[in-house]
Amino acid sequence: MDDAIRTYAELQQHMRDALREQHPEWVDPDGDSPICQSYERRFAELLALFAESGTRSAQTLNGS
After folding, report:
1. Residue 15: CB partners within 8 Å, gap ≥ 6?
2. pLDDT 10s digits, 7-35
3. What does the pLDDT average to over 31-53?
4. Per-domain residue ranges for the chain?
């Protein structure tokens, strides 16, 4: 069985499932989880910063 995560959506779902499994107390009775949503937003922000930083680094290396 291949458990590789290939897309951002798969990674996001994996993180969501793991957080809910490890911290069931974060999940409201209606299934909502503001804490998990906060983690997801922060992760997306960090990925965007990383991607932006990587783009700048590549431009510097290419002399742009």
Report:
1. 39, 40, 43
2. 988 988 999 999 999 999 999 999 999 99
3. 92
4. 33-64
